[in-house]
Amino acid sequence: MKRWVKAGLLGLGGLGLLRTALLTDEYLRYVKEGMRPLLIASGVLLVVLGVAEAWSASRRRPHGASGHGHDDGHRHGPEGDRGAEEGHDHSGVPRVAWLLVLPALSLLFYAPPALGSYTASREPAKTVAVQDEDGFDPLPATSPLPITMTDFTQRVQQDRKRAIGGRAVLMSGFVTPVSDGGGGWYLTRILVSCCAADATTLKVRVYGSAAPKADTWVSVTGTWHASGALGTSSAAVAVDARSVTKIGKPSNSYMDALPLTS
Amino acid sequence: MQETETRPVAAGPAEEAVGGRPLPRFWPLLLLGAALLPGVLLVLVGRSLDEPAVQAWRTVCLAVTVQAMPFLLLGTALSGAINAFVPAHVFGRLLPKRPALAVPVAGVAGVVLPGCECASVPVANSLIGRGVTPAAAFAFLLSAPAVNPVVLTATAIAFPGSPEMVLARLLASLLTAATMGWLWLWLGRAEWLRPSVRHTGHRPGQSRWTEFREGFQHDFLHAGGFLVVGAMAAATFNVAVPRSVLETFSGSPWLSVLFLAGLAIVLAVCSEADAFVAASLTGFSPVARLTFMVVGPMVDLKLIALQTGTFGRAFAVRFSTATAVVAVVCSVLIGGVLL
């Protein structure tokens, strides 16, 4: 019996990983793209282990009681976990292992969504890296100019040539409501360096357009919202929106990508 | 989750019928209740699972678990392999006989395990099982996640143009690991360790492969369960304590060191990524960020959970507290000299 439980736990965990990493791209809600091969390998390994355990359980069953010493040394009851620890074999299922069922089932049937406006509204905007003095290339002539939120923040707060002033820019992200009462809303992206536990937030405040529903993905066309001195850290990271259009949620949302211009 | 809560309700009337007592007169009501309550509970629990805070918690919890899973598998596979295939005398030959010398050697040997901290706990456990002195195994446990090439490369990428940060991380981590090893030799008591006879090594008459598979499976299930516990704790702090609270501490140099040490413990970011997190904490001094990177791979919530499961609570509490203190002191010393 215990061996079947073990086989089930291992197999379930493996299937959960395979579903999230191989069959769908839901793993991108939790970790980075580069983890995919590792997750698939882990899933396969766990399924193989589960199958091997089930196979050996079904083979050994008839001999289980004949003193082979593998299926009988286990003590039940409240000390079950301890019993498994101190017994001289590996036949027991540690009680704590049952907890593995939760993430496995969650991955299989009820995967939580990527982090969104709830997390973003509780975190200060990430401080972007400081560009070198002459690190800013001339902006391309396209209008509106597709730009990442990191680039926009750097251009607004660091570019002494103020090339961004007056230019129409196009950015995309999801909507986070503003709670300080100053009007507008935040265009937001959450960045992740390893897994969703280390999420950081990029925010650009959007004025001049009613806030869409929180967590909607939108692309915003607008010009810099003149407040503070452009090119210094006093400049507001904000735009006056000309148009706001709904877009589909990207599958890999934890990155600061250029908006699709199609 | 829902199922366990609803089961007793659904079982109510059925048990009475089985018990042989006559059904109470209002049994249709009971039946109705039995039919409705699980549904209502299910809806309520389901609703609360869709609350943004609960969703964020579940996402972070799964993220920590999923991220750690491959490394945990690697660690438990290695530990199973050491147990089944490596004869005990190999380690006796590789490590110096005197424990005080074996400690730094084991610390430096941490370079060979390319993984994050989840992998090192089961490996250290099987090393102890194979006759390695616990002090040396603990030095390995602490240094492996912090000084392996993957982590050092990640640190170099996260801090471009400041190689002294990589050097400081390497030295501070090794120093902490060795200090903890010696501290264990000096003050450690064997009875704090859970008596573990699981790693008995190869026994004659058994297939090595079966031993490997069964040890691997058992270690994985055991450590995996504790990983889930740690992930839940980390997710709770992650969601309950907004990052903005932290930034208020960045002003004072001393508080900021202690605070980032605390953050490292609470966030439970894996050691391959914590350099990027440290790099993003731009408001803090380099010494504070170094502390974050030294403490993180050695003490954090999921590690404490894993150590509790592997070595026992008496050990995990003492060891983690001591390690946190030693790690902060070492990073301040090394950081003060180098950064």
TrEMBL record, chain A:
Keywords: Membrane, Transmembrane, Transmembrane helix. Residues 68-89 have a biased composition (Basic and acidic residues). The chain crosses the membrane at residues 39-57, 96-115. InterPro entries: DUF1980, DUF1980_C. Residues 59-89 are annotated as: Disordered. The keyword NADP does not apply. Pfam families: DUF1980_C. Residues 166-254 form the DUF1980 domain. This is Membrane protein. The lineage of its organism: Bacteria, Bacillati, Actinomycetota, Actinomycetes, Kitasatosporales. The gene is ycgQ.
Automatic annotation (TrEMBL), chain B:
GO terms for cellular component: plasma membrane. It comes from the Bacteria. InterPro entries: DUF318, UPF0718. Its main location: membrane. Keywords: Cell membrane, Membrane, Transmembrane, Transmembrane helix. It is found in: Cell membrane. The chain crosses the membrane at residues 26-45, 57-86, 135-159, 166-187, 220-241, 253-269, 275-295, 315-338. Pfam families: ArsP_1 (PF03773). The keyword Transmembrane applies. It is a multi-pass membrane protein. PANTHER family: UPF0718 PROTEIN YCGR (PTHR34184:SF4). Belongs to the UPF0718 family. This is Permease. It comes from Streptomyces phaeofaciens.
